[in-house]
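Section 5: illustrative case.
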């Protein structure tokens, strides 16, 4: 679903044993939204247990709602459930990365009370 939402024509599906290993990790979290039996949205996150602070942080890695189900509150519900879960897990901050050109995503996170931290810069290394 995430890859289709990103416009990937031939989505890359990991082998079942890779997915099973990922889903068995205690620091990987998946939230899904169904309408009946149809998957209509979801998010994935990684819990980042910090070495110098007791509270951990959460990295919201990916989130998506199927195009024909957007603007029905599904994304807001996913965020609310994720925030509630994170609080109960002892997390003190949720981090979300996106690109500066992703205006719809920025607008969504602002609408769900996310704070745009304009003083942060993200670097990446392609390997």
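Designed sequence:
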């Amino acid at each position: 679903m995430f890859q289709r939402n990103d416009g990937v024509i031939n989505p890359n599906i990991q082998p079942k044993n890779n997915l099973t290993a990922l889903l068995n990790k205690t620091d990987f979290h998946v939230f899904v939204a169904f309408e009946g039996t149809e998957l209509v949205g979801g998010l994935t996150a990684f819990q980042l247990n910090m070495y110098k602070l007791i509270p951990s942080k959460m990295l919201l890695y990916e989130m998506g709602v199927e195009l024909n189900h957007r603007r029905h509150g599904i994304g807001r519900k996913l965020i609310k459930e994720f925030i509630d879960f994170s609080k109960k897990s002892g997390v003190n901050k949720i981090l979300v990365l996106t690109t500066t050109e992703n205006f719809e995503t920025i607008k969504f996170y602002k609408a769900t009370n996310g704070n745009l931290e304009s003083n942060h810069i993200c670097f990446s290394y392609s390997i």
